[in-house]
């Protein structure tokens, strides 16, 4: 969804109309078209691979109900990201009350013949990013992920999270500062041998 071409957006809107008319095969097609991006986005939002499948299921269950009220005022991906952010926010709030160890297994396809060193390096970079993201408060994390990793504009994000564009820009500014600071600390710890997230 993060890089949805215009024709895909038109296709998604057509599927939504069919779902609203009670065609559940259209929902299966919508799921097939959006599931990989939704899974990746939720992974970035919540950071714990074990939870992603459950959250993905919850997001689509909520979507099935929410889609009835979708009128096409915003792009479908913005509408769906609103559902994902609500699911992620509930989870992150719950997780803060009940901390646990994260499981590091970024859902990515490794191409056959990929250099193992490059794969290991990519995984370590992903782990560092995830650790830095975990240091952000939930609302800042969602804004940061949607802007930096999903390519959404502040206006789209504002629509997706139910906030104003100015609030989004402010959160994004603070999130970037905090993220960069966390990355510097983690990279410093990694160089001095104090980072254990990659093991």
From TrEMBL:
Q: Which molecular function GO terms apply here?
A: DNA binding; sigma factor activity
**Could you give a single Gene Ontology term from the biological process aspect?**
DNA-templated transcription initiation
Task: Outline the extent of the RNA polymerase sigma-70 region domain.
Answer: 35-97
**In its keyword annotation, does this UniProt entry include Disulfide bond?**
no
Which InterPro entries does the record associate with it? RNA_pol_sigma-70-like, RNA_pol_sigma-70_dom, RNA_pol_sigma70_r2, RNA_pol_sigma70_r4_t2, RNA_pol_sigma_r2, RNA_pol_sigma_r3/r4-like, WH-like_DNA-bd_sf
Domain of life (superkingdom): Bacteria
Q: Which residues form the RNA polymerase sigma factor 70 region 4 type domain?
A: 128-177
Asked if the keyword RNA-binding belongs to this entry, the reply reads no
Keywords, in A-Z order: DNA-binding, Sigma factor, Transcription, Transcription regulation
- Family the entry assigns: Belongs to the sigma-70 factor family. ECF subfamily.
The entry's protein name is RNA polymerase sigma-70 factor, ECF subfamily
Please give the organism.
Answer: Myxococcus xanthus (strain DK1622)
